[in-house]
Amino acid sequence: MSRTDLVVSGWSAVSPYGLGAEPFAAGLLAGDQTVGQLDPEVWPVPDDRAALVPDFDIPTVLGTKGTRSMDRITGLAVSTVGLLFTRYGPKLADRPEDVGLVLGTGSGSVQSIMDFTRDSLTGEKPFHVDPARFPNTVMNCAAGQSAIRHQLKGPNTTVSGGALTGLLALNYASRLHRRGRSEVILCGGVEEYSVQRSWLEWHAGDGAAPTLGEGCAVLLLESGASAQRYGRRPLATVLGAWFGAFPDRSPDRAREVLAGCVSRALRDSGAAGSRVRLVAPAFPAGPLGDAERGALSDVLADDTVVRIECRDLLGDTAAASASFQLAALLAAAGARPDLAGTLALATSVDQEGTVGCALLRIGSAAPVNEGTEP
């Protein structure tokens, strides 16, 4: 690692395992199932099961000040960013303007968008709506509120790209770093479970929607020099993110394009496939998941690779899925000091015809419970 390399020096998550990195790492590595039965009185949805953040109540987690009109997706994001501040101290950089935020999301909160639209249509007049809830209908609300609440004054960006969202956010954050736009960058993805999301997925799948999940995962990115200056241990070095497309949406073509994407990542990084010891794949249900499995077997030596599969444990977390995959790699690396210096790979494939991967070089292992978290 050089002083100019982009490194991951921290991370946190709000997930179906609970609040913070430690419960996420412990639950994931133990293979604990988070999908549970839904109360139909609380959730009038077509699903009977989902993976929810347990007992997540915004005023309880964040307090009552400034949260009256905050929706679920914003609460998840603000809470996760707050956990990073709690763990790594009140000052992530010397100046607030040196801390940027790149947050991935789907469409923001479809629940807020549809509720606000319904109020406009069913009210006595179209403008008889709650103006305090209008910001929730904008896609970048979660990122904006996270910056406001935690006084982040650096670049603030919202990225959306389906299952690849977390990888796209990492790529965007890497560009900010290379161009000197921000000294410290918080980067991740967020997704909420809601009544409207459940019904949309159900209709899109012709009544066969996947088991849905929710949560948020955020990485703390900075240069090696910055990590050294603030006394943070580099957990991994970001080698980059690579992407491809298969416009015909053919699973065979998806396999070919993803295999080429991973091969390009290894070639560009000057690394051999045998150096990849950890893989966190997306593995969506159906033919695309089979295509992803095939692509990985085409490129990597399966007998030396440890696979960490999040989807079966966390449900379909959509825009947050790739960020959870990256967090899973860091959690697994933290439990395996022998993997220091090897490579970790996250891959994803989206039904809209895109694939992507991110490659990390694992640093010195650090215990997940380093620092303090609630």
Q: Could you describe the 3D structure shown?
A:
By secondary structure, this protein is an alpha/beta fold. It folds into two domains: 6-229, 3-Layer(aba) Sandwich (Peroxisomal Thiolase, Chain A, domain 1); 237-362, Thiolase/Chalcone synthase (Peroxisomal Thiolase, Chain A, domain 1, 3-Layer(aba) Sandwich). The protein is 36% helix and 21% strand. It is built from twelve helices and 13 strands. The longest helix is centred in the C-terminal third of the chain and has 19 residues, at 251-269. It is globular and about 65 Å long. The relative contact order is 0.19.
How would you sum up this structure in a few lines?
The chain is α/β, with parallel strands linked by helices. Helix content is 36%, strand content 21%. The chain has two domains: 6-229, Peroxisomal Thiolase, Chain A, domain 1 (3-Layer(aba) Sandwich), CATH 3.40.47.10; 237-362, Peroxisomal Thiolase, Chain A, domain 1.
Mean pLDDT: 91
CATH class of the largest domain: Alpha Beta
Record field, number of beta strands = 13
- Counting DSSP H or I runs of 4 or more residues, the number of helices is 12
Radius of gyration: 20 Å
Q: Name the helicity range.
A: 25-40%
Q: What is the 3D shape?
A: globular
Q: For the record, what is the CATH homologous superfamily label of the largest domain?
A: Thiolase/Chalcone synthase
> What is the string of SSEs from the N terminus onward?
EEHEEHHEHHEHEHEHEHEHEHHEE
Count of domain modules: 2
CATH architecture of the largest domain: 3-Layer(aba) Sandwich
Strand content: 15-25%
- Low-pLDDT parts are 370-374
CATH fold title of the largest domain: Peroxisomal Thiolase, Chain A, domain 1
Major sheet summary line = 11 strands, mixed
* SS-based class: alpha/beta
